[in-house]
Amino acid sequence: MSVISEKSSSTTTTIVVVGGGVAGAEVVRGLSSRLNPEKYRLVLVTARPYYTFLPASLRLLANSDSSLSTVFMSFDQIFGRFPGELKIGTVAYIEENRDALYSRGGFVILESGERLGYDVLVVCTGSTWSGHLAFPNDESGCKQHVESWRNKIKTAKDIG
């Protein structure tokens, strides 16, 4: 089990944002442009290694000339100049802080067993989609999903 931060410093506030969808990305962008890196640590936890822009996904699935990059975008610039941390993983559970020395916060426990300490937790887990919008979390799964749906759309006899 790996521990990212039990509580790195009493002068640093750790903010963990869970979810890299629309809401989580907006929260991270907003905070990273306003926070002082000497006082705050900002961590984004997301199951996917890329941002998924769902409005463009319909065109991607229907048009074989559409590039995957119009829907799946890297998180590499999400923090701007802020020294934020991106953690790819799935949250297993959240553990309340029971240490009397610290009055707030807790731990985000990932399925890998990794523990992320936080002072402030922002949960932006979003929605789960089915069918054509149920993109897998890994890149190869997404490519297969897109090809499968492109084939279904191409060979469809009707839309009903």
Automatic annotation (TrEMBL):
Keyword line: FAD, Flavoprotein, Oxidoreductase
Entry's Gene Ontology molecular function annotations: electron-transferring-flavoprotein dehydrogenase activity; flavin adenine dinucleotide binding
UniProt-listed InterPro entries: FAD/NAD-bd_sf, FAD/NAD-binding_dom
Domain of life: Eukaryota
UniProt cross-references to Pfam families, sorted A to Z: Pyr_redox_2 (PF07992)
Domain called FAD/NAD(P)-binding: residue spans: 14-147
Family affiliation: Belongs to the FAD-dependent oxidoreductase family.
Protein's UniProt name: FAD/NAD(P)-binding domain-containing protein
Organism: Agrocybe pediades
